[in-house]
Amino acid sequence: MLYRERLLPGPLILALGVALFLMVGAAYSRAFGSVLGVALGLLVSALFIGFACATAPYIRLEESDGACFLTAGRARISIEIVGSVSQLSPDRRVEIRRGRSADTAFSLIRGSLPVVELEILDPLDPHGLWCLSTRNPQELIRAITTAKGPKNSSTDTRW
Fold first, then answer.
1. Which residues does the chain have with pLDDT short of 50?
2. Which residues are CB-neighbours of 148 under 8 A, at least 6 positions away?
3. Based on the domain organization, do 50 and 87 belong to the same domain?
4. Segment 65-79, tens digit of pLDDT
5. Is residue 77 part of a domain?
6. Are 127 and 84 in contact (CB under 8 A)?
7. Within 10 Å of residue 141's Cβ, how many Cβ atoms?
8. Cβ contact 113:151 at 8 Å
9. I need a surface site. Which of 6, 11, 63, 111 has the fewest CB within 10 A?
10. Domain, as residue range, for 86
11. pLDDT at position 49, please?
């Protein structure tokens, strides 16, 4: 494993879980009593937050059988067909998130995290770019560059 990161839910999803607790707890407290209402509210909230965390996507860079693969969520690609790797500027990140980009980019974007853009060199791939959120953009760029080796590795940080 050369790089691994899990994109856990942000504060908005956790706040939604707390709000769910308050709504269910208040509704069922009125109908069945406060103890059962609070217990049901906690159960529903815990299930919601647990499901959100359990289904959070991973970004992994791993080597297997002499080849290196980048996995983002359920998508997987050989590192050999990755071209340039760069961190997106905040303005470009907003364009990608809002779908205003002319590119047919594969996007795994979470909240306001920094986004790393990967150029895909395979002409048969329907996605010419991958845009991945990460808490550690420089570490992800360094891991991809290292995995690609000295040949044809180019990095660029656009700020």
1. 152-153, 157-159
2. 68, 79, 80, 82
3. no
4. 888 999 999 999 999
5. yes
6. no
7. 21
8. no
9. 11
10. 58-157
11. 93
